[in-house]
Design brief:
Aminopeptidase; 6 helices; single chain
Length: about 180
Amino acid sequence: MTYSAGMTYRIRPARAGEAEDLRAIERAAGQSFASVGYPDVARHEPTPAAALRDAATEGALFVAVTPSDDRPVGFLLCTEIDGDLYVQELAVHPDHAGHRLAVPLLKAAEDLARSLGLPALSLTTFRTVPWNAPYYERLGFHVMPDDQIGPSLRFVIARQKAAGLDVANRVAMRRYLPV
């Protein structure tokens, strides 16, 4: 299944052989966090290649590609957590930022969630970084009240804290799928 993302991009399932390309995208996308006070994110090691290969094989990894050469320029990695489809990583190479590639990538995740019978997408993100929580709010995500954060998502947040992320400025968000 592919999705159109404007005239110059399309969304498709990732291929296991694209793992290193996706790591390079994640590394490049992370650099923008240094300019908003998160140099640790910019230095953070990207998702392990084996995890990306496994997710591609399982159908839980989508890429935005240029139609001219089918080269990935962004991706969305997801997994089921606490009954939602959790967006573990969404990254777009800075050379391709500003084309709203998150929208069709999230649409692909939404379709996967529906096929799995899951009611919502969830994610964790920075509260004040402009392309994080404020952007997701414009896309229909809402901050999850603390009492709605399930045990597995709490574990994800604890791992983020252990990895050095500023969890005081992190927020869990959810977007229920349209009926």
